[in-house]
Amino acid sequence: MEFDAIIRSFYKKHWQIIASQIRSVNEIQCPKRGFLFDCGVTNKETLIDLLTKLKVNKLISKQIIVAAVKEDFFILNIEKFYQKDSHIFVDVSGSLEKPGNFKLNDFNIEKHLEVIRKQIISFENDLFVDLEISEEYCVPTIFGYLINYPVLYYYNDENDRNCLSLVDLKVFQIIRDDEILISFSIPCEIFDQNKEIQEKISFWLHHFQSHDEFEVKQFFTNNPIIILHERDEEARAFFEQACENDHRNLRAYQNLQNIKNKMARWHFKMLNDSSRNLSFKRAIQYWIKNGDGIIDVMDIGSGTGLLSMYATNVAKVKTKVKNIYAIEFSQIMADISAESLSTTEILMNDMFLEYLFLGNLRLISKRDEPYDADYVEKISDFKLVTKTVETIEVNFNNLESMEKYFNGKIIKECQLESEVNNDYIDGFVVWFSLYLNEMEPENIISTKPKSGSCWTQAIFKLKQRVLLQMYQIVKISVSCKEGVLKIDRDLDINSDLVDIEVDSNILKFLNDEEYLQELEFSVSKHKSKIINCLDFSVFPYVGLVLLKEGRIEKLWCRKKDELLVKEIASRNVIKESGFEFIDESMIDRLNIKFELIILHPFLSLGDLDNQMVCNFAKYRKLQADGGLLIPNKVTLFGELINSDWLISSCRITDADVKRLKIDKFINQFATEVHLDLDNSLECEKLTSAFKISEISLDDELHESSLEVPLRNTNLPIHAIFYHHKIQLTRATNDFVTNRKSKTSCFKRTAQVLNSELIIDGATVKISFTQNFGIVKCDVLTTC
Ligand SMILES: C[S@@+](CC[C@H](N)C(=O)[O-])C[C@H]1O[C@@H](n2cnc3c(N)ncnc32)[C@H](O)[C@@H]1O
């Protein structure tokens, strides 16, 4: 039996993670010496059985054992503990203001680790060791030691508190075959200041970098709350409890929303698409009842398991179906479908359900696609300018046909005839018709524009608009390689321009002419001399203009924009010596004053950049006397709305899906905060826009409340639809983010109420809380 197959026979869920972790512990060239079993439920006996089986089949070394560390289990490779090594510790005790490193042997930790090491190596001929951990030992340090992190955290706190909250961390991840083998973090400040630590980490990384199969990823993070071992389920329960205990703990509130967001939001919209569900149900019913001798049913990409349930329901009445396999590669979805499938009472006695994870088929999801996926009708002046043509047809019952398309071997040449005269073409919109059952030809799901389907369309944008004449033919070639649709067209070709690939948020910002003009105008009103300008906007456009015009001496901007800024600078004959590139994490170490600071405390999906809001005090410290900091003020506004569209994007509303009790599981992932909205949101406004509160540009707690008159009391309140008013400087007009402009770079957000609120009175009370730069409102009845 093969390695993977053995692991799978023990663990249906998470087997891939378990397999790759055990493999890495077993391999002598991999520095990882221990794997903490934190990806599901297990027990000592199962782990011992598993290791025995792997050893009998000579698939792992004899030196691999199970170790119990308090309530947790580790798989360890004894061989990797023979050599005694020295360690560097970082003190993260909850009582400290910030993490600090301290010398070796402080607090006798080295001694503690040596006791542990000796216990491990003395168990050479056993399969299991229950490590004796004295009360004074710090368990996370031992965990780090067993895993073999290059630097170990230590804390001296009875309540397990640490001081890593809101600390900028440098994270190193070791990845192999898309699985994260090790995730290790170190506070940026400590890393930057300590040569010994840098050397130790780079020596540790070198082990991985010298083998091609490992990928080393580095990034920065600043998490409001750090849990030393990542466990989503526990974290969700923990944050839920924290929110319940203290509704003002908005860090916990935000973390809870983030954890829930790990499940893709479109599942809600899809499960609420009743006509889609019905079409699938009909086709499944038809084939299970009428198909000749169907024994196995396979639901590939089962999501919540809805289609498997449809199949199970039909199969239980006089059919030959024996097995229904639900296959899903997203762990969260697989967990949801495992729960919903096993708790519904529709299973037949002689039927078993099994979960297979086809990890090797993760080809489509993480790719940057050459098109935008969106509802094309959201573009206000959208119209079709050519006749519609059928492009490619894939027969899902014919492997050869699927493979041909998947390999990109078939390229379909199409001719689109213009139906407009002297009008522009801006791009191509692609949708599909799904013929679910050739025996019921009318059972079709179409995702064409304005069809009301949950599917978005694929929108391929042209680099520049092209004028069309009546009956003009536009030629395109359509193909689909590795599941990604591609359109080649001759319209883009005749251009001398050199393309540079830019993050789409930067592009949106640079296209928002109105906002850029306001920014430039605000700066132009400031007559004092500017030497240093810090421009942390989405892109330092204004800073670049000022530098080009010689109105500033030095522009400080983000390191991540360095290449693009330098490219633009060279085309505009701006000297490279005029720039300094820095990270946000460096601002409290800067020893310089700025006469102009431009910030953009909003994220691309419309919510406040709470980290930037919290850091405003730090930016103010960098402001020179008489200097200008933009923006001066941000105010939050809202409208109460009724929107079925919004509700159906956030939680299960479809009666049939509810009847199957799927809502019980998936609604646990319903979030209150809905991002990435704009003025086109389908909704009924129940109030005029009202001012909620000025955003305090700090990390403190602020609370207020207000009463809002309703102009429509017939409909339940579903959500508060937010926007902001930005005062760039005291001397300029306010700028609102709910402009009608088609090129606005500002998105809107909504906070959806937990349950719909039906009001008898004429007003409602809204309470506003801001904490750690995060905002939240509660809507209450006034009577
Ligand atoms: C469009 S959803 C359909 C969910 C479900 N069948 C339904 O109709 O409600 C597709 C699901 O397929 C999963 N998926 C995508 N690619 C997969 C692959 N290669 N192997 C297994 N599951 C995959 C996704 O995680 C997602 O949950």
UniProtKB/TrEMBL annotation:
Keyword S-adenosyl-L-methionine: yes
Assigned keywords, A-Z: Methyltransferase, S-adenosyl-L-methionine, Transferase
Pfam families named among the record's database cross-references: DUF4504 (PF14953), PRMT_C (PF22528)
Highest taxon above the source species: Eukaryota
Any one GO molecular function term: protein-arginine N-methyltransferase activity
Listed PANTHER family: PROTEIN ARGININE N-METHYLTRANSFERASE (PTHR11006), PROTEIN ARGININE N-METHYLTRANSFERASE 9 (PTHR11006:SF60)
Higher taxonomy: Eukaryota, Metazoa, Ecdysozoa, Arthropoda, Hexapoda
Keyword S-adenosyl-L-methionine belongs to the record: yes
GO terms for biological process, alphabetical: methylation
Record-given protein name: CLUMA_CG014100, isoform A
GO cellular component: nucleus
Natural source organism: Clunio marinus
Gene3D superfamilies, per the entry: Hnrnp arginine n-methyltransferase1 (2.70.160.11), Vaccinia Virus protein VP39 (3.40.50.150)
Protein arginine N-methyltransferase domain ranges (all copies): 376-493
